Amino acid sequence: MGTDEDPGPLVRMYAVTGGRARPIGESFDVVAVVTTLGMPQVSVGLSPEHMTVLRLCARPTTVADIGVYLRLPLNITRVLLSDLRREGLVSIDRPAASAGSMNERIYQEVLNGLRTL
Q1: For residue 43, what are the domain limits?
Q2: Strand 101-102 versus strand 97-98 pairing type
């Protein structure tokens, strides 16, 4: 394989997460809502994917939608999000329940996101 050839999706995922396959810290669901708390002064140690997530989550965004936007599997997306949470750059919250059940719009967004995977 020459140096100009695409290394493939597995190599990319390994590089994006530094070889980690599981998020660190408290687990979160695909319907959890991620919101950027702040942008770092310097992006040292953050990948382009991390920076994309921070820009995307300036408005609250579900984990599933982030994965779809990045075109990455959910476990890789969760690893990236756990990195950002550990750095205090994002909050990851359960979606608000209305009258004891989740908002139907959130269910539909997650369903649509999963269909595109």
Answers
A1: 9-96+103-116
A2: antiparallel
CA atoms within 13 A of residue 95's CA, in its CB half-sphere: 23
Q: How far apart are CA 105 and CA 109, in angstroms?
A: 6
- The total number of structural domains that make up the chain: 1
Q: Is residue 90 part of a domain?
A: yes
> Residues 26-82: pLDDT tens digits?
888 889 999 999 888 776 778 889 999 999 999 999 999 999 999 888 888 999 999
- Pull the structure tokens for residue 48: 């382009």
pTM of the predicted structure, to 2 decimals: 0.68
Give the contacts of 29 (CB within 8 A, at least 6 positions apart): 63, 94
Tell me the CB-side half-sphere exposure of residue 48, using CA atoms within 13 A: 4
Q: Which residues pair with 101 in a beta bridge?
A: 98
In a domain, 75, yes or no: yes
Taking the C-alpha atoms of residue 16 and residue 49, their distance in angstroms, rounded to an integer, is: 7
